[in-house]
Input
Amino acid sequence: MNFKATILESGDIARALTRIAHEILERNKGAADLALIGVHTRGIPLAARLGAKLRELEGVDVPLGKLDITLYRDDLSEIAHQPIVRKTEVPFDIARRKVVLIDDVLYTGRTVRAALDALTDLGRPSSIQLAVLIDRGHRELPIRADYVGKNLPTARSEVVKVKLAESDEADVVELWEDE
Amino acid sequence: MTRSLLDFADWTAEQVQAIFDTADVMHEVLARPVKKVPALQGMTICTAFFENSTRTRLSFELAARRMSADVVTFAAGASSLSKGESLRDTIETLNALGVDAFIVRHEASGAAHLVNKYSAKPTINAGDGRRAHPTQALLDAYTLREKFGSLEGKKITIVGDVRHSRVARSNAELLPMLGASVTLCGPATLLPKELARRGVTLTTDVNEAVKGADAVMALRLQRERMNAGYLGSLEEYAATYQVNEALMERARDGAFVLHPGPMNRDVEISGSLADSPRALIVRQVENGLAVRMSVLYHLLVGRGA
Output
């Protein structure tokens, strides 16, 4: 795989998340009844960071959850390797809450579809909104994000790598070419 | 991950750990309002039970349904077996009907291997003769690990009719792989010497067997063994080998008690001990569902299936 470009650096990621936090508050008229649910793996630290920003801005702790969508994937019978299943941890009732689902990259939309199925098995939120750090296009399903850190038109042969300090060596978004 | 689960011959501790990790997730699924995930949607699983069973068959069927698979049940008594059809023909018929996996219980040791030979689809051994019952051992080990955190260095004592017990054999394979030592105890007639190996001790002295044990598992005493001359009488057996409060005083403080079920109360285990807080018998059944969901996921998901 060949490196092509750095798309976002640490400061860019922080600013994008601050903007998304403002947009979430504006659209929902505050943080009442909100919940943030990150999709494994990198949606989870992004959800925690958004939660911290909402606390700074509004002085409230928005409930945080972790969602694993492996058991809901529509390609489980086709994949060569068995994906590791991780725990879904949503330690609050999502019924009647405005849930913001958070992931790092929005691509085909299949992960989001699986996440919507997984979420509705947990309860009936009053609404589900979608926040992503990068929207790289190439949707295969009628899904769009409500909050986007950066729109990044890509070729299918390209790979977007989101690295976050919580799990990687630093905060950075990179574009690579798959060989 | 191996394609079938017949015994633990070619399994590693890492593979077992992967089963346990996914079983943890399955517990979380079972606590949800909708206790079902679509991971095996579109698959058909056959529970082929050539021998009677209640908890194992129901546990497997529910596990498959919780994963959204379709389940067909083959009950030997109501089948063409009574017309003389062979095991091979039965399996080939079920194969032709589009079954994606077989869960097999059979009174003959090695039957699950035969099914695995006749079918290209994954086979899970749900108990074959006296040879193996791997998912029971997995749920036993999972239940103990849940209590101890790790099985490393733990002494697990299994008391009863070891000779005819596939549960004892599978546990004697699995528990030492996870770092535990296993002591098998029973009357000399029911204690085959060939089971002794690294990590497994055999003794007829039940007081010595239970001394310092972290957990004691009582095995079901199969009454038909008395007719075969292995035992004098039930009373005689119970007087010596029954797992009860008095015997448990020799074990470690707070040692746990297990039983694979079904129990003969006040024969191999005292009813009061089975109902006590140190008994994990109900938890074994609960864990069995999560462990079997995990096994189905690991064997059936992915192109290797």
